[in-house]
Amino acid sequence: MTTRSTRSPRRRTVVVLAVVLAVLTGFIIRLVDIQVVNAREHIADSMSLGLGDAKKLYGTRGSIVDDSGTTLATSVLQYDCQLDPKNAGKVERRTADGTKVTTSWPDVADEIGAITGQAGADVQKIVADAKAIDPNSRFAYLKKGLSTEQYRKLMELGTGFVACVPAQKRAYPNGAVAGNLLGFMGTDGTALGGLELAENQCLTGKDGTLTFEKGKDGVIIPGTESEVPAVDGGTVKLTIDSDLQWYMSQLISEQVQDTQAVRGTITVVDIKTGKIKAAAEYPTVDPNDVTASKPDDRRSHIFTDTFEPGSTFKGLTASSLIDGAGQSPTSTVQVSDHMRFANGAVVSDATSHGLVDYTLAGVLIDSSNAGISKFSERIDPNLRYDYLKKFGIGTGSAVAFPGQAKGLIHPVSKWDNQMLYDTAYGQGLTTTVPELMSAYTAIVDGGMKMPLRLVESCTKADGTVVTPETPAPTRVISAQTSAEMREILENVAMQASYSKLVKIPGYRIATKTGTAQQVDPGTGRYRAGLYFTTMIGFAPADDPQYLVAVTLDSPSTVRSSSANAPAFQKAMTQVLKTYRVMPSTTAPTVLPKFG
């Protein structure tokens, strides 16, 4: 039988338990409110009061790849490691059986050096030097740029006074291949040139943050984390074929050294698209070790140099004459190897000959300065100037390359008596490799000038693909003029003195050379015996697919543009093989040199 006295304690117990549960429930609700429901607000409050901590989340810089996705530039995780000089010294360890073993400081330094690639004595010196400045020093750099494997081995030593900080570093797997195009990064992660700079907006990642609160023991308090995620940089895809680029890099290196030139370049363009498939230079730069190259070798001379193009400009002048002055490949002029014109200008040919009746085709085949000068009298100078501007001379290229140069053509009003004729054969004005290449796309591909392209796209971290805006092709000459110019330039390759050097069995080839004197910047006069030589050409001549240009700055073993012929022949042969261009099945039209 239950009495009042026994019921009372039970009731009190139930009431107490109910109160306790209610209090606990209140605490739980409040805890959920603080750490879950309104966690972000409270974390923000604590951070503003300096009660929290934060960690930067790094956005990785994007990669640069070639047209097939092969990596040319990428970011890798490396470690910058440091020492605590005050605590650096002997290390106590335990063996597998639990025995305590002490390793002396010199031996520990040797172990560290064996991992980092330093001598043990050098590691000891780092510590000694730091303590000499400050006996209580807690910081000294051990070595920067260590790999993940090296970092792990250092941590396995269990020293307690070695610490490493992760750092993103730029790596270029192909070394100097395309180095002049890619550019490089500064030690502080700043883009300093080339495509690294030009495409910096696409490549740069966006850092994020992880904020949190920690307890007294340093452990992160669960539920206090708040993250603003990092965003990786995009991937820049180029039009370059890295295998072809490698071949051209080797080829121009050999040609520069064989001819003892100062430098040289090989550029390959897909005529139908304007895509640059290779842009090789020598000397070049390895972006992995920039300081190993001279400062002037760290930029792209293809894009940043101007030069007098010499007789390659006869192709532009001949196009203007056919298109704008009613001339044809078989039109003729009568000239000798040394001509004095009515205005007093004097023009000479490189080879001696008597009075001859040259055709326009013959003028280009023999590269007669006198002949093209005489022909140039048949077109108004202002109209010829307009054609040069339409060809793009002096306007740069459509490629947004840092420091890109532009050629220079003075207005006709500033042409003196000599320049009136000099400009017909590529002197008294300047251009660049991209300008010349783009102009020749118009000459050989139906009269339409194709803007050059080097960057295919930027693929952002979220998968969005952005394609650079490229100007539309523009008409410079008629399709008929272009067809006649293809015949002329093919006859140059067939009948010029260097024809055997550029011949590729099974293919119809077209070429034009240029040998231009170099101007001394100090005096403004031409330097004796120094030339800038160029060879530009396309194949197949009956259906142009690829354009190749080879330049040499001051070749000395051979000082004419025939110095470029061996490299041109090998370069074009490799291009035709790489892209499996079918051999020609038709015969060329042979044009007469003389009337």
TrEMBL record:
It holds the Pfam family Transpeptidase. Gene3D superfamilies: 3.30.450.330, DD-peptidase/beta-lactamase superfamily (3.40.710.10), Penicillin-binding protein 2a (Domain 2) (3.90.1310.10). The chain crosses the membrane at residues 12-32. Residues 264-572 form the Penicillin-binding protein transpeptidase domain. Keywords: Membrane, Transmembrane, Transmembrane helix. Belongs to the transpeptidase family. This is Penicillin-binding protein 2.
